[in-house]
Each structure stands twice: as C-alpha cells, then as structure tokens.
Amino acid sequence: MDEFGGNLVAAAHELKTPLVLVRQLSLQLAETEDPAARAEIIRRIRLTTERSLRLVDNLTRAARLESAMFEMEPVLLGGLCREVVDELSPLSTALGQEFQVKIGKSPLAAVGNRDLLRSLIMGLVDNALTYNSSGSPVEISTRIRRGEAELAVRDHGATMDLAEFRCLQDRLGTQATPIAARPLSSGLGLLIAQKFAMAMNGRLSVERHRRGGLTFRAHLPASQQLSFVSLTGAES
Amino acid sequence: MKVLILEDDKWFADSLRANLGQGFDVRVCHDPEKVFDIIEKWQPDVLLADVILGAKNLFVLLNEIQSYTDTRTLPVVILSTVAQQIKIQDVAQYNVRKILDKTEITPEKLRETIQRQGGKNV
C-alpha cells in the first residue's frame, strides 16, 4: 500500500473507533432508565463526538496545508496551553485524568499560526489523555531551549519497546505509524501534529521514559519580539 | 455465569458490562498483562476479548491460555472492529467460539452469545 493509501486507512481507523463507541453508548442509553446513568452516557457520547469532530477538522486542515496561507505571528505558548487545558478539562474529568501545567515565569512566545498551534497542542494533549495511566497527571510544559520555543506533553502510559520506539522516531512526520502499546490510535494524530509543526517551520520529537510513558515535544521558532510580548500582556 | 471482559477502551468496556446486565457476574480488565492472573484466580466461564490489546496481541495471550491444561478449555468470544478479517476456522485452535463485530453487535446478540457459552468451561 502506498503512503496515500496507508494514510486513508489510518484516517478510516481513527474515525471508526469513536463511531463504534458512540453506537455502543447509544445502544446502552436505549436500555438505561436511571437518570444519572443516562446523563453520564450522554456526556460520553458528546465528548466522543467532539473528539471525532476535532479529528475531522484536523484532517481537513492538514490536507489543505500546502495550498493555504497562514498568518504567522508571535503566540504566547503558556496562554494557549491553558486554553487547551480548559477546553479539554471535561474530557479529562470524564476519563479520570488530571493535568499538571508547568509554565515558566517569563513569557515565552513562538512564531506560528495561532489556530494551527492550538490544534497541534490539542492533538498532543488529547493523545496523552487517551494513554496516560490514572494516578499520574498529564504534564504540559514550555521552555526555551537552544533558541527554540519548546512545548512538551508527557504521559505516563505503557512502556514502549525500543524497536517500536525507533520505528516511531524514524517515521514521525512521514507516515501514520500504529503503536502496539497504544492500540486505539493509528498514529495519524501524530502525523498531523508533525505536519502542523513543519508548516510553522518547526518539528516534533518524541522521548521514551524508562518507567513508562512518552513525551512529545513541539519545537518552534522562538519569537524575539519581546516588546510585542510585553505589549500584549505577560503570561500569568 | 462469570464473564471476563478484556477491552482497552474503558468506556466501551463499561458499556458492555451494562449491556450484559445483572444476569452475569462481570469483571473488566484493561491490561492484557494482568488478564492471566484474573483467569487463574477468578476462573471465568467465558472470556470476551478485543483483538488489538496493548503491547500483547490477543493471539499471543490465547496461545498462552492454551498452553495450560487448566485454562485451555476457557471459551473465548472475540469482539472486534476487525471481525470481518478474522475467520473462525483460523482461531478455533484457541477455543474461540464466536467472533462478534463491534460495528454490528446489539445488547441482545451479546447476551445471547455469552449465554450460549455457559457450562462449556471445564
């Protein structure tokens, strides 16, 4: 199968999984009379649907990346991270997960497109929520390193063996790579995140942790316009 | 009747448990690394399992179950989104009795299929 076909299959898989869950939940809803239980099922249907819609949006956006014009501007990473955390907090609560956000005191701005950057962060955090083990928070942090603005999202999910990790590293950004330890995903979300990072002259990297879990990092050009940052408000 | 559900997706597993209802004693396991312990200690009457499960493929696990005399007769029902790609004759060696499609399954069909496996565990 060529790259295009492989990505189509990955997209189909990514969409099939939540659709099957929504179908299952609706069947459960039809058999449930308890109002509290019904409300919880409806909440899960809504959250699963919203996840699918984000994926569809990102697929569309990724397909149009090459022909689209993006406004690049300094974007405060800390504020954007907090926006994403706020938006995903209903999902994290429903999944029994927590966030830990570590934003430096100094404002850190990346040069990028605000919408793309937001989608990129949303994708990485959503991915971490899916695979994080409950009991440890999903960690989101930002820092400046070697002149790059860096955003890291760490989960404490299953340990990945070295061979599979190398394969993921090699293929990151070129094709969707399913991960055996993370079976609910085809790897398409990571491919999209890499495409978004590259469109903003950045890149994605991944780190494996000995005690389990992965950290995905987006490296983006740091904005040197400190005056701009101070004008638009330091990060709180 | 004791039913062990092996399913990665916690919400899907919760939903299956609810669908099975009070007529079954149900336990859910999300981690294929732990399922063997549960089988040994709890001795379910049927294993309802998804195919794609974390680091361990279901068939590796089923092979392991088959390798022990006291667990090899455990009836297995597969519930998967890739059900159409699996032929029952190819997995019969693992004591797989039925393959259900997640995209088509109904609560009635699920209950009926699980009920049919009752008493087949030795």
Task: Itemize the secondary structure elements and their pairings.
The complex is a heterodimer of chains A (236) and B (122).
Chain A: H1 3-31, H2 35-63, E1 73-76, H3 77-94, E2 99-102, E3 109-112, H4 114-131, E4 138-145, E5 148-154, H5 162-171, H6 188-199, E6 203-208, E7 214-221, H7 226-232
Parallel strand pairs in A: 2-4
Antiparallel strand pairs in A: 1-3, 4-5, 5-7, 6-7
Chain B: E1 2-6, H1 10-20, E2 25-29, H2 32-42, E3 46-49, H3 58-66, E4 76-80, H4 88-91, E5 96-101, H5 107-116
Parallel strand pairs in B: 1-2, 1-3, 3-4, 4-5
Return the average pLDDT of chain B rounded to an integer: 87
Q: Gyration radius of chain B, to the nearest Å?
A: 13 Å
Alpha-beta content class of chain B = alpha/beta
Strand order of the largest sheet of chain B: 2-1-3-4-5
Shape of chain A: globular
Q: Structural class from helices and strands of chain A? A: alpha+beta
Helix-strand pattern of chain B, N to C? Answer: EHEHEHEHEH
Arrangement of strands in the largest sheet of chain A: 2-4-5-7-6
The main pleated sheet of chain B reads as:
5 strands, parallel
Largest interface: A-B, 25 and 20 residues
- What can be said about the biggest beta sheet of chain A? 5 strands, mixed
Poorly predicted regions of chain B are none
The low-confidence runs of chain A, each spanning 5 or more residues with pLDDT under 50, are: 229-234
Broad CATH class of chain B: Alpha Beta
**CATH-wise, what's the superfamily of chain B?**
Response regulator
Helix share, percent of chain A: 40-55%
So how many helices of chain A? 7
